[in-house]
Each structure stands twice: as structure tokens, then as C-alpha cells.
Amino acid sequence: MKKTLLAGLGLLLVPFLRAELLFCSEPSVQVFETGHDAYEVSCRFSVNTDSKTAWAVLSDYDGIGKYVTSLKSSRTVERKADHVMVEQVGQAGLWFVQSKFEVLLKVYETPGTKIDFEDVSKKSFQFYRGSWEILNGQNGVQIVYKLSVVQQTRFPMFVTRGFLRKSIAELIGQVKNKIDGRGS
Fold first, then answer.
1. What single DSSP character describes residue 61?
2. Residue 149: enclosing H or E segment and its boundaries?
3. CATH value at residue 128
4. Number of domains in the chain
């Protein structure tokens, strides 16, 4: 009965949602449930710029909060030879559900090509690990974003998938716009 009620609520809300909140055509965000409250997110997009420009945007941990609207703060708290520690606080939501998040990311850089990150604080997520990768192409670069996440707070699957898709689509769109702006 509870699942039927939640599914019915979701179907009632669908006509009132703008299509771009559910699906992002370019770049395309894919969300897959991989287990109990566990999700894999992936996205790939192209930018007509060079890898140096893309790297400058992706590795600007202290500046990302200026153009990614879901981040209230992002700051480097430690830089060592083999990793960077980045603290981020933000808020994101879908419909009437708003959620604050805090992560302390341990970041490993392969300069110019890849950034791997994992939340070591476990304050907002049971598991949060991902990467940004820059691939050179004929007409610029492709950026590949991947995220594996296990949430702390339980929400119905349709809410979590929509939340992740919307949040990541906004993040990717804002990062893509910043890279485009730097490349001009």
C-alpha cells in the first residue's frame, strides 16, 4: 500500500515537472541503482577547448563554489605531495525535499588528465567516490564524470534517482559553462 501511494504521488507530480529537471540531453546524466540505496552516476560531455583550460577549471577547488550553485563553500584544507583534502558544504534538492551535505574529499590528481575523489568524513554519505577525466579529441576535449554513492538518508528510489539526476545535471551544466567561458 505504501509503495502504491508513493508511486501514485510520483505519477501525479510528473506532469508538473519541467522535462529538463528529469533529463539533460547534452550533457546526458545516467543514474543506475546498484544496490540498496547505492547508485552509480555517469556523464560525458564535449567542450571545444584544450585540456589545460579544462584542467584549470576542474582543479580549482577553492573557486568551484563561485559558479556551482549547490555549493555553499569549497576550500582546500590540506595539500600534500600525493593528495589534496577539500572540504565542501552545500545544499541540493528536488521538489519539496532539500538536503544539506558535507564532504571532506581526499583528492588524487593525475595532472592534466584525471581527478579521483572520495569522501572520508562519512557525514552525509555512507560512500561517495568519483572522478573527473579529461580526454583529448579532434575538436577539443571530452569530460567524463563518474560517481558512486550510498546515501545516509533513505528516500524512495524515484526521489533519489530524480534528485541525483537533477543535481548532477546542474553541476555538469555549470562546470561545462565555466570551461566554455574560459576557453573563449
1. T
2. strand 140-151
3. 3.30.530.20
4. 1
Query: How many angstroms separate the CA atoms of 47 and 26, rounded?
Result: 11
In a domain, 13, yes or no: no
By 3-state DSSP, what share of the chain in percent is helix, strand and coil, each rounded to 5?
30, 45, 25
The pLDDT of residue 18 is: 32
Specify the pTM. Answer: 0.79
Mean pLDDT per 10-residue segment, the chain (184 residues): 38 33 56 84 94 97 93 96 95 64 95 97 93 93 94 59 77 93 59
Say if 132 falls within a structural domain. yes
What dihedral angle (degrees, nearest 10) is formed by the CA atoms of 39, 32, 175, 135? 110
Q: What is residue 80's predicted lDDT score, i.e. its pLDDT?
A: 97
Per-residue cell: 18: 519541467
Distance CA 131, CA 116 (A): 4
Q: Which domain holds residue 54?
A: 25-183
Whether the bond between 27 and the residue before it is cis, its omega within 30 degrees of 0, is yes
* Residue 10 lies inside a defined structural domain of this protein: no
pLDDT digits (tens, 9 = 90+) for 36-74: 778 899 999 999 999 999 999 999 999 999 999 889 999
| Contact (CB, 8 A) for 50 and 140 | yes
Instruction: Give the ranges where 14-68 is alpha helix by DSSP (H).
Output: 19-22, 51-58
In a domain, 11, yes or no: no
**CA angle (131 as vertex; 119, 89 as ends), nearest 5:** 40
